[in-house]
Write a structure and sequence with these properties.
Elements (H helix, E strand, L loop, with lengths): L17 H8 L5 E3 L4 E3 L7 E7 L2 E6 L5 E7 L4 E2 L1 H6 L6 E4 L3 E7 H10 L1 H27 L2 H15 L6 E2 L3 H8 L3 H13 L3 E4 L2 E4 L2 H11 L2
């Protein structure tokens, strides 16, 4: 991902315009899921595509040994599970409701019927898939080219743009941050405590607030030098 963190975070999510989202899911009945519920697991048969009405869905991948890497967070008007449904293959990741969620869904036949009848919708889904590919490519580039400090700073800036409450608190634990970056909790804790001492962030149990975005951006820039 080469775009600076200050760009619109919504562009990094798999979202449709409100009118196209309604066109795709307008006839669907809302489905409610409790926090902690899985929509699907990696390698499951892909039989449905989901649209998020409210709540937060975590997309994660797992190694054969069970190591978890959080790939993304999906919010309102995001699509979840589109890749497997479109190509008919297995799920490429797991989807977990981090909060209570309200979703809508279509099966594969219903999805293709919608796409065949609505060219603007089909084009929007293609554009969405391209954005998703660019996101994944950028994440891989970051892992290969950026130091862990720069990756953590970049992730905090990103999450601050999409998850922070009105007071700026990002509801995320240090263990969850480690899962985002494929790092150990101990290494993340060490960096966060150092940044707290430099007044870049504030930490409380289960949440972090960015207090000096420019300082974190400087860490990102230095990590890319």
């Amino acid at each position: 991902m080469s775009a600076p963190w200050s760009g619109d975070p919504a562009l990094r999510l798999a979202r449709l315009r409100p009118d196209l989202f309604d066109l795709l899911f307008g006839e669907c009945r809302p489905e409610r899921y409790s926090a902690g519920a899985h929509l699907f697991m990696q390698e499951d048969v892909a039989d449905r595509i989901y649209g998020v009405l409210s709540g937060t869905v975590e997309i994660s991948i797992y190694s054969p040994g069970g190591r978890k890497l959080v790939a993304n967070i999906e919010l309102s008007r995001s699509l979840v599970g589109e890749i497997g449904v479109l190509d008919g293959g297995a799920r490429t990741a797991s989807a977990l409701c981090l909060t209570d969620c309200t979703l809508v869904s279509l099966n594969r036949a219903q999805l293709f019927d919608k796409l065949e009848k609505n060219a603007p919708l089909a084009l929007a889904v293609i554009e969405l898939l391209c954005a998703r590919l660019r996101w994944v490519s950028g994440e891989r580039n970051d892992q290969a080219l950026l130091k862990i400090e720069a990756r953590l700073a970049k992730r905090l800036l990103f999450l601050s743009g999409i998850l922070a409450d009105k007071d700026g608190w990002i509801p995320i634990s240090q263990a969850e941050l480690a899962a985002f970056l494929g790092a150990t909790r101990e290494s993340i804790n060490k960096m966060l405590n150092e940044w707290r001492s430099r007044s870049l962030i504030i930490i409380r149990r289960g949440a972090i607030r960015v207090t000096n975005a420019d300082g974190l951006q400087e860490i990102v820039d230095l990590g890319d030098a």
